[in-house]
Amino acid sequence: MRNQRIIPAVLILAGICIAQTPDGNALLKKIDENMIARNKIITSRMIIHGRRGSRTIESRSWIQGAEKSFTEYLAPAREKGTKMLKLEDQLWTYTPSADRSIRISGHMLRQSVMGSDLSYEDMMEDPKLENLYDAAVVGEDTCLGRSCWVMELQAKVVDVAYHSRKIWIDKTRYNVLKEERYAKSGKLLKTTVISETMQVEGRWFAKRAVFKDVLNQGKGTEFILESLELDADIPDYIFSKAALRK
Amino acid sequence: MLAFKLAVKNLAGAGLRTWLNAFVLSLAYVVIVWHSGLLEGWNRMARHDMIEWDIGGGEIWFEKYDPYDPFSYQDAHAPVPENWTREVQQGRMTPVLLTTASFYPEGRIQSVLIKGIDPAQSVLKLPADSMRTDEEIVPVMIGKRMADSNHLKKGDYITIRWRDRHGTFDAAEVKIAHIFKANVPTIDNGQIWMPIEQLRQWLKMPGEATYLVLGQNEKPASAEGWTYQGHDRLLAEMDKMIRQKSVGGMILYTLMLLLAMLAIFDTQVFSIFRRQKEIGTQMALGMTRTQVIGLFTIEGAMHGVLAAVMAAVYGIPLLSLQAVRGLKMPEGMDDYGVAVAEKIFPVYSAGLIAGTVVLVMLTTTIVSYWPSRKIAKMKPTDAIRGKLQ
């Protein structure tokens, strides 16, 4: 008689729990909505921790949606004036010392950006996660003192760089607080750990993060967002090859 | 005959001067033969090793493959044409699939070229059968240069990260099953060899290859999209380098010959100046100017003959010894990108020796004749009196 009361109670409780766990793909959509703006102007610092010390690279980026971006490096003096233009799946770089623009393609896309733990391909990837992955919420955790959903992402398209990912999402702000990227074999390849967030116009972004190539010994690459301007007016000429030489 | 006898007599009379000239000239003989023989030995050895270890009887490339353009690698693969299946099964040609990847020796990221080859192949001398193992972990083999530059040894485990045909990252640990030692850097530097079936599985390219290596004298039927590359093309880089080295050697020969010729020229000028009375007497006794010029020319050219004899006396034992023992090449010669053995055994052909003798004799004769022309302008009466002309 007692069991007859407990079983329905447990079932109801489980039902409530399931109902509270959001749909993974719906969550992905919210993450994308939080991350991707019509236009963004970002000023950032990248601290690359290498074997022989650390280097800090400052840059300013103009980003339009998920397809177009233009980055100009501001410091150090050696990199100053270097520019990078991404138009859909094509990438060009301009080096002032050589006064030449070259298209980064094929094998070169796999190389590291300025010696960091990020490759050009990482930068080229479609930032809209819902276009690339099917997601499932697999648990809860706490990151940066915030309550998070832990989600597992499985590629739904074949031409994606990372077959699976695991991400920690702030339950209410929908920004990623931690990420692990895996090879097809299940081997962990890269991690991103956010240590500080910032709010801009109601959205939450990573202010300070560490990217790390797990297979490589080293402390990784630190990324610091200095300023972020959303939906700013960006003239069209910025996203042209002519802008690289200006 | 008279001119020859007189020439020998005069040369013997000149004493040390003759021997010094002959010695300098003999050095030219020996250096030319030695250097040319060394290059020929290197050429033969490099061709032999390249054929045995790398290119076999020729290669058939997929049309998009360009070994000098790493960007071409990601698209340079296609299924092995069906009309070659029998040759492949019979071991008369072997497919090779390649891709670029990263590996992490001592925690550092390094780019690497992964080449898949059949462990059962016998077309190349590569010890691919060392990758036949029952272990679950993927066995690979690397060359000694690659092992040394990355501090790797047999039995080490390394992580490789690659992308499949769709661009998706994958990674696995592999075990170094064998480290081979070959004189051919093109199969060694920055390369990892692994079983082709495993690589095809990793890259999702079943039955595909980038190029096929042919056995000796194999001439398979042509297939669309695949191009035959013969030894001429595959060894072109090496031939070019040997040619460049030969040009460098020519400068050395020219310098050596110039020194010798300068000495002979000076000797001739000095002789003609000092022996004016003798020239006048010869003319007075009935010798024509041409005969006198001939006498001095033969005398000068005899230096070449003496030098050849002298070169044979010390050169033959010296060069023979080196042909047997070889010449140890300095470390780092591999960086040139062509096959260089630890020791090179010079090859001295009869043609090389005969060619060198003809070259030196001809040059010596010309140099001897040149100052002798002055005799033609001499007046016999003034010459007898020893009057300067």
Task: Give a verbal description of the structure.
The complex is a heterodimer of chains A (246) and B (389). Chain A has 246 residues and is α+β, with helices and mostly antiparallel strands. Chain A has one domain: Clam (outer membrane lipoprotein receptor (LolB), chain A), CATH 2.50.20. Chain A contains four helices and 13 strands. Chain A has a 13-stranded antiparallel β-sheet. In chain A, strand 7 and strand 8 form a beta hairpin. With 389 residues, chain B is of the alpha+beta class. Chain B folds into two domains: 200 residues, no CATH class; 172 residues, no CATH class. In chain B, 49% of the residues lie in helices and 18% in strands. Chain B is built from eleven helices and 13 strands. In chain B, strands 1, 3, 4, 5, 6, 7, 8, 10 and 11 form a nine-stranded mixed β-sheet that branches. In chain B, strands 2-9 form a two-stranded antiparallel sheet. The mean pLDDT of chain B is 86. Classes of the chains: A alpha+beta (246), B alpha+beta (389). At the A-B interface, loops of A face strand 6 and strand 7 of B.
Rg of chain A, alpha carbons: 21 Å
Number of helices of chain B: 11
**What is the second-level CATH architecture of chain A?**
Clam
Share of β-strand residues of chain A: over 45%
The named CATH superfamily of chain A: Lipoprotein localisation LolA/LolB/LppX
Determine the fraction of residues in helical runs of chain B and give it as a percent range: 40-55%
Number of strands of chain B: 13
Question: Unreliable runs of chain B, pLDDT <50, ≥5 residues?
Answer: none
Helix fraction of chain A, binned, reads 10-25%
Q: Helix segment count of chain A? A: 4
Q: What structural class results from the helix and strand content of chain A? A: alpha+beta
Q: Oligomeric status of the shown chains?
A: heterodimer
Name the pair of protein chains with the most residues at their interface, and give those residue counts: A-B, 25 and 22 residues
CATH class of chain A: Mainly Beta
Query: How many independent structural domains of chain B?
Result: 2
Distance between the termini of chain B: 29 Å
Order of helices and strands of chain A: HHEEEEEEHHEEEEEEE
